[in-house]
Amino acid sequence: MPAYVPESEDRGGRRQRGLASLFLVLALAVLYMPKGGQQDLAWMLRASLLRPFLTLQASVARARLRARQVEDLQVQLDSLSATVATESALVDENRTLRSILGLARRVGAAFRPASVLRPGTPGSESMFLLDVGAEEGVHEGAPVVDAYGLVGLVREVRPHTSIGLDWTSPDFRVSAMLADGLEFGLVENRRGAFREADRLVLNGMAYHESVEDGTPVLTSGLGGEIPRGIPIGRIDGVAETEAGWRKSYWLRPMVQPASVTHVLVEVGKDTLDLSRAWPVDSIRTRDEALDEQRARADSLAALTDRVHVLRARVNELLRAGGDSVTSGAPGSSPGGGT
Amino acid sequence: MRGRAAVWIAVAGLVLVHFGVHVGVGVGRGAPDLLTVALLLAAREVGVGTAAGIGFGFGLLEDALTVISFGANALSLTIVGVLGAITRDLFVGDSLAFLLSYFVIGKWVRDLITWLMMGEAIRQPFVDQVVVHGFVGGVYAAAVGLVIMAVAGRWREVPR
Predict the structure, then answer these.
(1) Do A31 and B59 touch (CB under 8 A)?
(2) Contact A119, B22 (CB under 8 A)
(3) Parallel, antiparallel or unpaired: strands A149-157 and A143-146
(4) How would DSSP label each residue in A44-96?
(5) Is A32 in contact with B71 (Cβ distance < 8 A)?
(6) Alpha-carbon distance A115 to A58, whole Å?
(7) In terms of CATH, what superfamily is A87-286?
(8) What beta strand segments (E) does B30-151 contain?
(9) Domain extents for chain A?
(10) Distance (Å, rounded) from C-alpha A277 to C-alpha A108?
(11) Contact between residue A170 and residue B68 where contact means Cβ atoms under 8 Å apart
(12) Are A249 and A237 in contact (CB under 8 A)?
């Protein structure tokens, strides 16, 4: 630590104070500058100084996936039982990609696949980066979806990248309807006591109508920005009633943004209705889909066990039948049948 | 002079590691706020104007990764830079108690100002974000800062 030497009042000290005031004014100016200017400045920094770190994140994500695959291969070589125990990560990744592929077929060419990156710095919790941008046809306000429903909306578009905000953002608002298309409302984010307690709420529902828990809520397409029929969540109880004329409901979201790695982004503005991509009877969350698959695998395993038991029983019966035939045959010795 | 160079190398290293860990590898709150530690270290070496400039630059980098509260980090780190540099004229010597409180309070002030500037719609409750996370983050940052100062040879109980 340098020895205590007061700064010269005439030169150094005054210059330093002037500089400090200048930077404080600049910081305030940045805080209150127009949104467009802020976005340009942020993009410039992301495309220059921060680019290596963002590239690193993409590489780390790829390396993680590769490492997982290598591990899985190694485990498969080691033993079949170990494979069964550890292949879940690869299976999970495959499931995500397959579901995205399946969805891509259903929604058609109006959506493009993209990878999701998250900055991970304080204050950027609701934000994600996409590796597609204006050159690929992405536009501001475009919906970002995965196989289970709406992940968020594109907020800012650059030539080859874009920035989206998921439903945990306080700015998230989507016009919505119940699955039957009769009741309309507005879905928005409601802050919880802490970040993990953030929830979605469906506002503006008629007081006299009661909606059952579990009813799917979809985008309504009103306003023309977001196509109709994308699942947002399921009704999860009444949030509040207001003066006997309005009700709002909690929603259990279809998508948990933190677990999303691959998505589809709308690239045209022509899509009006996506109801066919998510038929009401096929709407489910990731956990529900996993439970369903697990139940299917369990019943398959039970059936396989039953087949083995029956086969063993048939073999036993055949053997017993053979024994009785050979023991009853003339000239054969007792117990000598095979 | 060599010690001074070591501090600047440590500051540059901390900035790189901060963005490498938070952005590159994607570790969230599990990693300490090394950017504030780097600023507090640098602020003890320079005048208030330079410290404000460094804070402003660091804040802009952090703001480039947030969409909703752009500018909050720039302002908070500029103020922390100024305050950090002022402490050089107010406190002589680097006792353990002083350095510990310097890093803890520095980080806590940064969190407090960021929280104030974020806007009511997006900020977390005061107790959660400033009192609990700010204090724990401050202690975490102080531990890292003390290690760096010891390694860089800048931690001396008695001023020269």
Answers:
(1) no
(2) yes
(3) antiparallel
(4) HHHHTTTHHHHHHHHHHHHHHHHHHHHHHHHHHHH-HHHHHHHTHHHHHHHHH
(5) yes
(6) 9
(7) Rod shape-determining protein MreC, domain 2 (2.40.10.350)
(8) none
(9) 87-286
(10) 9
(11) yes
(12) yes
- Strand, coil or helix: what is B64? coil
Could you say which of A19, A31, A57 has the minimum Cβ distance to residue B52? A19
Question: Which residues, listed in sequence order, are joined to residue A117 by a DSSP beta bridge?
Answer: A129
* Beta-bridge partners for A265: A112, A144
Cα(A150)–Cα(B103) distance, integer angstroms: 42
- Positive or negative, the Cα torsion across A250, A252, A258, A262? negative
Closest residue on chain A to B159 (Cα): A3
Nearest CB neighbour to B53, from listed A23, A33, A61: A23
**Beta strands A127-130 and A111-117, pairing class:** antiparallel
SS3 call for B47: coil
Where do we find the tokens 């908070």? B76
Give the whole-angstrom CA distance, residue A130 versus residue B67. 14
Contact A127 B68 (CB under 8 A): yes
Can you give the pTM of this predicted structure? 0.61
**Probe site for chain A from B7, B17, B23 (most A CB atoms < 10 A):** B23
From first to last of its 338 residues, chain A has per-residue pLDDT tens of 455 455 555 567 888 899 999 999 999 999 899 888 888 898 899 889 988 888 888 888 778 778 877 777 766 666 555 555 556 666 666 666 666 666 666 666 678 888 888 876 767 778 888 888 888 888 888 899 888 889 999 988 888 888 898 888 888 888 999 888 888 889 988 877 766 778 899 988 888 778 888 889 999 888 777 888 899 999 988 888 876 778 889 998 888 888 788 888 888 777 677 777 777 777 877 778 778 878 888 888 888 888 999 999 898 888 888 776 666 555 444 444 33
Residue-level pLDDT at A136: 86
CA nearest B149: which of B105, B93, B80, B69?
Answer: B93
Q: What is residue A301's DSSP assignment? A: H
Mutate to test the interface with A, among B67, B92, B124 (most CBs of A within 10 A): B67
> What's residue A81's pLDDT?
55
Which letter, b or e, does each residue of B13-49 get, where b requires 16 or more Cβ atoms within 10 Å of its Cβ? ebbebbbbbbbbbbeeeebbbbbbbbbbbbbbbbbbb
SS3 for A338? coil
